[in-house]
Design goal:
Elements (H helix, E strand, L loop, with lengths): L1 H9 L12 H29 L5 H28 L2 E3 L2 E2 L7 H5 L9 E2 L5 E3 L8 H20 L8 H25 L2 H5 L7 H19 L4 H5 L6 H20 L8 H28 L4 H15 L8 H11 L2 H12 L1 H5 L6 H19 L2 H7 L14 H31 L8 H6 L1 H4 L37 E4 L2 E4 L2
Antiparallel strand pairs: 1-2, 3-4, 5-6
């Protein structure tokens, strides 16, 4: 009886449950998508709002919020099929909407991942997960959205919001989709056998290089902001960082497109590497600066998460520790030492150091994957048979070379595309806010402030804040409530 009930629960029930639908895979993929979404909304929104100077809290949060919403619309209009549709070019798919019910309820398929021999015979079939296309479209939207929000981290505190609103769809279409198709959607790097398990190159290296390039063209913050840009709320920053870390289980756990044995290995490796990296970064802070830094710990967490991403499902867990040790030290050196000695790094105002935490860490992870990828784990999830890292001999030496070439392509394309986009936008609107707005911050840009508390330089004005002791009709005068409905929301009369 129980067996029959189980069979009925997992069996097909047309038309809503076709024979190809695996309910477990579908449930996990939608859960993983939501976890990745929580990294952005509210994770990075909270993190950005709290890690910046108080006067930029609203603007920083809004840039992330806008990017999340705008990416979704342009993703379903054209972006998804540019990145995962039929092949148009070796590096780009055929763009088209992903909106019709006929398209979204069919079985998911990445058509360009199919491989054929020179004589036209089938070498490898296309990747077809056991759930509908709508699930895959939504999952990859979350990756596109978080990449765009990471780019924003480089230009916080001075980019013209109108320029940012134009930059988001243009960069998504002409930069992100190229990397995604090339490495994931069946493009030339995918077919060549480059390993980017969950976005070390597509997301982290791309966002770090694009953010650094955009920061160059936008220009620097005010000198006073560059010299002093302390977080306005360290505890809230930790809350955002915690959402980012926990959401990474969906980030790397959802990459196999199934609830298979690769997914938990990837999730475990992700957490091992992040924890190791955080501890190494914190230890270096203690050794060189005499005290641990909460901001440093968050940076170490980020570099560990970015580093493990390209290899989370294909490296053994001891390798995750090694990667964590290197991601907690090499980006630390690049940020704390090399940055201060390099005139180029000093010239470019990368607000949150996205170049170090994502570009350096993502590149490091991609190269280490080319060394440490374990053959048996590779065979579980990768499309190219007998893939392995250089430490395992055989074709591993060539694999490391492939990782280098792919990194150079991602770096070159993002410098080129981001430069063209920024210069194009600059013809229409300024990339940088005027100094008058930069001096004031959120109140000048949005007419809103993050914290509206009495005693913060503002005096109580009963005519402005909604209580007037005059009564034209002789009604009994009411005492003012301690909660005032002011122009900037509810404030507390302390």
């Amino acid at each position: 009886m129980a067996a029959a009930a189980v069979a009925q629960a997992y069996g097909p029930h047309l038309p809503a449950v076709p024979e190809w639908l695996n309910k477990g895979d579908n449930a996990w993929q939608m859960t993983a998508s939501t976890l990745v979404g929580i990294q952005s909304m509210p994770g990075l929104v909270i993190l950005y709002a709290s890690i910046v100077k108080k006067k930029w809290a609203v603007n920083s949060a809004f840039m992330a919020l806008y990017a999340f919403a705008a990416v979704l619309i342009f993703w379903v209009l054209v972006g998804y099929r540019l990145a995962f549709g039929d092949r148009l070019l070796p590096m780009w798919g055929e763009g088209a909407p992903a909106l019709s019910e006929e398209y979204l309820v069919r079985r998911a398929k990445l058509p360009a991942t199919e491989s054929r021999r020179a004589d036209g015979s089938l070498e490898r079939p296309a990747n077809e997960p056991f759930y509908p296309m709508a699930t895959l479209v939504y999952f990859h939207f979350q990756f596109a959205a978080i990449t765009m929000i990471l780019v924003a981290g480089s230009v916080l505190g001075r980019m013209n919001i109108k320029a940012w609103m134009a930059f988001v769809p243009l960069w998504l279409i002409f930069s992100y989709t190229v990397g995604a198709f090339s490495l994931w959607g069946g493009g030339f790097l995918y077919q060549w056998g480059v390993i980017d398990y969950s976005g070390g190159y597509v997301i982290h290296l791309a966002s770090g290089i694009a953010g650094f390039t955009a920061a160059y063209w936008v220009g620097p913050r005010l000198k006073s902001d560059r010299e002093r840009f302390s977080p306005n709320n360290v505890l809230l920053m930790l809350a955002g960082a915690g959402l980012l870390w926990m959401g990474w289980s969906g980030f790397n756990g959802g990459a196999p497109y199934a609830a298979n044995i690769t997914a938990p290995v990837a999730v475990l490796n992700t957490n091992i590497c992040a924890a190791t990296s955080l501890l190494i970064w914190t230890s270096l802070d203690v050794v060189f600066f005499g005290k641990p830094s909460v901001i440093g710990a968050v940076q170490g967490m980020m570099t560990g998460l970015a580093c493990i991403t390209p290899g989370a499902g294909v490296v053994p867990s001891w390798a995750a520790i090694v990667m964590g040790m290197l991601s907690g030290s090499i980006p630390w050196v690049s940020m704390m030492i090399l940055h201060k000695k390099s005139s180029l790094l000093q010239q470019v105002d990368d607000t949150l150091g996205v170049f170090h935490t994502h570009a350096v860490a993502g590149l490091l992870g991609g190269l280490l994957t080319g060394l440490l990828a374990e053959p048996d784990l590779c065979n579980l999830v990768l499309p190219i048979p007998n893939s392995r890292g250089a430490f395992y001999g055989g074709s591993g030496r060539v694999q490391f070379l492939k990782q280098i070439v792919a990194a150079l392509f991602v770096i070159g394309w993002n410098i080129f595309s981001t430069t063209v986009i920024c210069l194009g936008i600059k013809l229409v609107v300024p990339l940088r806010m005027p100094d008058e707005q930069l001096i004031i911050g959120d109140d000048a840009v949005h007419g809103e402030e993050a914290y509206a508390l009495w005693g913060d330089g503002e005096k109580y004005d009963p005519t402005r804040h909604g209580w007037n002791n005059s009564s034209s009709h002789g009604e009994e005068m009411m005492a003012p409530s301690p909660c005032i409905n002011g122009a900037r929301g509810v404030t507390i009369n302390l």
